[in-house]
Design a protein that fits this description.
This protein is of the alpha/beta class and 257 residues long. 42% of the residues lie in helices and 16% in strands.
């Protein structure tokens, strides 16, 4: 895929993608690179990031692998500093790192709760704060895209910590958009529905997954590329006057719930 020209071009921009080792984060990194961005690939595990770096550089892109624990402020600061040293000022952040725990609410332990909320909400906050501080100090502004979920907007069963974290992330998105606009920093969120990745593919192919699919008005699960248009819009200068919004990409599932 060649670099995107026109209003969605990211040519010359530096981006940081958290949770880039797999799934939607990996896809987002490839998408931003194809649109012309230099990409910091951040995750806890370096091995898959090194392979992703090779894949991007084989297509004449620029990427660097970065070890990152989003729940550790020191790790966040080191990651952002290294990304800027290697790639230049970060103007795009895709805040994608996240985990889930599927259990009935009665069975969720404090440890389960903390792991999910600390990663999905506190972690997103720590990375956004660090990147935005750099943007403000350097005076160039930028775009922060938080990867939320339709389960931050509607109820979901047996994932109480996940629902709470994504609902909190959507509220945080709006709060940061209002406060950081003065620095020309835009903060928006994507709320995907059920998007097929390696992590959930077996479940979505099961009988339970088939029942779920039938409740989606478009009658199919999403694919990572279904997020491309919304993600490129929010990351690019085409969305220069869009901030504090949530774009839902779920095949109309949430409007029927």
């Amino acid at each position: 895929m060649s670099a995107t020209a026109g209003p969605f071009s990211l040519e010359g921009k530096a981006a940081l993608v958290t949770g880039a080792s797999s799934g939607l984060g990996r896809h987002a990194a490839l998408l931003l690179s194809a649109a012309g961005a230099k990409v910091g690939l951040a995750a806890r595990r370096l091995e898959p990031l090194v392979e992703l770096e090779r894949q991007i550089e084989a297509k004449d892109g620029r990427a660097i692998p970065l070890r990152l624990d989003v729940t550790d402020p020191a790790s966040v600061a080191d990651c952002v500093s290294t990304a800027e040293t290697e790639l230049g000022p970060i103007s795009i952040l895709i805040n994608n790192a996240g985990v889930a725990e599927t259990k009935p609410a009665f069975e969720v332990s404090e440890e389960d709760w903390d792991r999910v909320v600390d990663t999905n909400l506190k972690g997103a906050w720590l990375v956004a704060q660090e990147v935005a501080q750099h943007m403000a100090n350097l005076g160039h502004g930028g775009s922060i895209v938080n990867m939320a979920s339709v389960l931050g907007l509607v109820a979901g069963q047996q994932v109480p910590a996940y629902v709470a974290s994504k609902g909190g992330l959507i509220a945080l998105t709006k709060a940061l958009a209002a406060e950081w606009a003065r620095h020309d920093i835009r903060v928006n969120a994507l709320a995907p529905g059920y998007i097929e990745t390696d992590i959930n593919r077996d479940f979505l192919a099961s009988e339970a997954g088939e029942r779920l699919r039938k409740r989606i008005p478009l009658r199919r699960f999403g694919r990572p590329e279904d997020l491309d248009g919304a993600l490129l819009l929010l990351a690019s200068d085409s969305a220069r006057y869009i901030s504090g919004t949530v774009i839902v990409v779920d095949g109309a599932q949430s409007v029927t719930l």
